[in-house]
Amino acid sequence: MEKKIPDFFKTKVQEAKEQFERTIDCKHTEFDDLYPYMNEQPQFFWYKRYVAWQELLTIVRLADELNVSWQGEFNDTQKQFIQDKVLDAKVLDEWYGKKRTEA
Q1: What band does 103 get if pLDDT is binned at 50, 70 and 90?
Q2: Which domain of life does the UniProt lineage start with (predicted)?
């Protein structure tokens, strides 16, 4: 079964976004299965987030190079974070919007 490139990349963007959001929420990801012995290390959660962030940025960059729209999956703040490319505490705190962190 042949997939169309735009559909393929839209799916990959959705998957990468979900994976990154799971790291923000400290939920289990595929990465945990690769390094189960690291789960007890405090720095593992940051490392896992950086890996998921890089995956998201890579897929978005490839989508851009192929002229595949990815912006529809993200709100304006999230798009700006992706365009800025830097993962910092602000991204983690405000990814879902400021209201979530104030609750």
Answers
A1: very low
A2: Bacteria
CA–CA dist 74, 13 (Å, integer): 10
**Count of beta carbons in the 10 Å neighbourhood of residue 48:** 22
Tokens at 51, concatenated: 């890996």
99 pLDDT tier (thresholds 50, 70, 90): low
pLDDT tens digit sequence for 49-98: 999 999 999 999 999 999 999 999 999 999 999 999 999 999 999 999 87
- The Cα–Cα gap between 44 and 53 comes to 14
How many angstroms separate the CA atoms of 69 and 59, rounded?
11
| Domains identified in the chain, total number | 1
Q: 72 is in which domain, residue-wise?
A: 5-102
Angle at 80 (CA atoms; ends 75, 82), nearest 5 degrees: 95
- What are the percentages of helix, strand and coil residues in the chain, rounded to 5? 70, 0, 30
